[in-house]
Amino acid sequence: MAEAKHNSDDYLRMYRQMVRIRAFEDQANQLYLSAKMPGLTHMYSGQEAVAVGICEALTPQDHITSTHRGHGHCVAKGADFKAMFCELLGKEEGYCRGKGGSMHIADQSNGNLGANAIVGGSMGIATGAALSHKMLGDGQVTVCFFGDGATAQGLWYEVMNMAALWGLPVIYACENNGYSEYTKTEEIAAGSMTARAEAFGIEAHSIDGQDVLAVNKLSAELVARCRKGEGPFFIELKTYRYHGHHVGDINRDYYRSKDEEAEWKTTRDPITGFGKWLQSEGIVSADDLVAINDAVKQDAEAAVQYALDAAYPDGSEVDMHVYAGTRHALSA
Amino acid sequence: MRQITLGKAVNEAIAEEMRRDDRVFLMGEDVAEAGTPFKITAGLVEEFGTGRVIDTPISEPGFVGMGVGAAMTGTRPIVDLMFGDFLFLVMDQLCNQAAKTHYMSGGKLTVPMVLRTNLGATRRSAAQHSQSLHALVAHIPGLKVALPSSAYEAKGLLKTAIRDDNPVVIFEDKLMYNDKAEVPEEEYLIPFGEAAVLRKGRDITLVGTSSMVQVCLKAADLLEKQGISAEVIDPRTIVPLDEATIVESAKKTSRAIVVDEGHQSYGVSAEIAARIAEKAFYHLDAPVLRFGAMDVPVPFSPALEDLTVPTPEKVAEAAAKICRGELVHAA
């Protein structure tokens, strides 16, 4: 593992944040399987080192844009379990008052500009946020999370061009989990991901997205350089999606083998790997890790129960928040 | 009072708002030194610099999307879309992103962005540079839509749009950029959702939007010569729509025609006519009529293009018929 931060507290926070993401997703999956969650959701499990490694390099004010597979980014950027589960269940206390759900979940107060259900849909928003911050001169950095599937969207090439022309403080973080929905990425993507960014003169990196320290080290460097006006940057993070495209995508042998899934889970799991490293460095004991895991699981279970018991929004909210400054759009 | 062109009025509105609020900036294709193909933004880059008057590549989805993100994070972009026809290129950014962000975030994020664009046929520009597509965006909750009908409205509505905390799409009639109207030297704003009654009348209500306001006023002149008194209403914004003023007028006159340059089918004229029919039905003496652009792609040849848009003569003829109690759609 590459070293980045040198403080045990930082390491433990990164470990705990990855465990929190996994625990959140395990609970969300159970909510779906037990038919307690409206709609469906896209699991982030397996990709935790990406969200945590990057978000730990950001301040709460720095912005991110997220994706349909966005719970991990939301947790990593500082969100609270209760408001997240409330959002997943369409409850009033959700981050979006139940109006967004899983695919639009975001803790806006921590710089999350929203999960986006249009693949690649946030690339303009992230680049525009970077333009804003450059104009305002506040030194903030924006990270645009997207998957390998989104690299097929033309929007990305338009905004990368402008980001490069204008030197915007944005980092394009491509989580290459190998699958574009139900299709192997190698079947939909020609050439290399990094070459695409390099074509615009953007410095591009490709790294192991299962190694949280490597992700954090590179992110911290690039964020610092963005703040100095050296952006934009591109990172391809090679990672793996443990579940199907969404929670209902269970029988997926036709595009991905169980052996492949088992290999990633047993040999390249980001949480297990980092846990082992923490022990080998003498930072924690096996018991310490179990205690963290148990405490997080309890937190998640309590938050789920809280959300299950929480109130739905009143029907009068249906036409609220259509327009800023207009309390009810349909009775104004 | 001084008279200035619609183009100059737009330029003044942008300049005044950029002087007032340094978070306001302008971006789009050829908005800086070129001042747009219509020369509307000429001079702004000299005053505000290339940091706030930004020429973009020809990447409409890209720079509209960036406008959305910039608006969400503390600045107030005016995004210039060179032709209204290019709306089709930016629909995801405008309708899936800008329009829904405030709602989907439970009211926590806002998108104070203005998309300036245009509408209007008869410029001999053929089917991809002549459309009036405001109905497309008016259909999407979360967007506001302004349709200035003169230099006065263009300035007052644009200033209001720039100060609004929501995404606003403002359509200027590209054939009116050189038309002059009285515009005060001193600052003024035109509130959204307040129609203007441009001419009082008692026999029929003509509701016209944007380019069609002049058509309605000319039709009213023609009708006056026949002893028919037409009331002319300009909604000025179609989202929000000042329904009350329109419905009350229709109740008073008992007849109404709605004229709008979008395609007639499934359009703005249909929406306003339906609201009049729903809310003034028992006061009406005739069916509410619609006039829109003909339901064909806009043709190039002047001989064909001129057939596709409503004219004062056609509107006046139909108005006179229904005022006489004749059936317009009997044939």
Give a written overview of the molecule.
The complex is a heterodimer of chains A (332) and B (331). Chain A is of the alpha/beta class. Chain A has one domain: Thiamin diphosphate (ThDP)-binding fold, Pyr/PP domains (Rossmann fold). Helices cover 44% and strands 10% of the residues of chain A. Chain A is built from twelve helices and seven strands. In chain B, the strands form three sheets. Chain B has a seven-stranded mixed beta sheet with strand order 3-2-4-5-7-6-12, with helices on both faces. Chain B contains eleven helices and 14 strands. With 331 residues, chain B is an alpha/beta fold. Chain B has two domains: 3-182, Rossmann fold (3-Layer(aba) Sandwich), CATH 3.40.50.970; 196-323, 3-Layer(aba) Sandwich (Rossmann fold), CATH 3.40.50.920. Chain B has helices at 6-20, 44-48, 60-72, 91-104, 134-138, 151-163, 212-225, 243-253, 268-280, 302-305, 312-323; strands at 3-5, 24-28, 53-55, 76-80, 114-119, 144-146, 168-173, 180-182, 196-199, 204-208, 230-234, 237-239, 256-263, 289-293. Chains A and B meet through α5 and α6 of A and α3 and α4 of B.
How many strands appear in the DSSP assignment of chain B?
14
Could you say what the CATH topology of the largest domain in chain B is called?
A: Rossmann fold
Unreliable spans of chain A: none
Average pLDDT of chain B, rounded to a whole number, is: 97
Features of the shown structure:
heterodimer, A: 332 residues, alpha/beta, Rossmann fold, five-stranded parallel sheet, two-stranded antiparallel ribbon, 12 helices, B: 331 residues, 2 domains, seven-stranded mixed sheet
Write a compact overview of the structure shown.
Chain A is α/β, with parallel strands linked by helices. Chain A is 44% helix and 10% strand.
SSE topology:
The complex is a heterodimer of chains A (332) and B (331).
Chain A: H1 8-33, H2 48-55, E1 63-65, H3 71-76, H4 81-88, H5 123-136, E2 142-147, H6 154-166, E3 170-176, E4 179-180, E5 183-184, H7 185-188, H8 193-198, E6 203-208, H9 212-227, E7 233-238, H10 258-267, H11 270-280, H12 286-309
Helix pairs in contact in A: 1-2, 1-11, 1-12, 2-9, 4-12, 5-6
Chain B: E1 3-5, H1 6-20, E2 24-28, H2 44-48, E3 53-55, H3 60-72, E4 76-80, H4 91-104, E5 114-119, H5 134-138, E6 144-146, H6 151-163, E7 168-173, E8 180-182, E9 196-199, E10 204-208, H7 212-225, E11 230-234, E12 237-239, H8 243-253, E13 256-263, H9 268-280, E14 289-293, H10 302-305, H11 312-323
Parallel strand pairs in B: 2-3, 2-4, 4-5, 5-7, 6-7, 10-11, 10-13, 13-14
Antiparallel strand pairs in B: 1-8, 6-12, 9-11
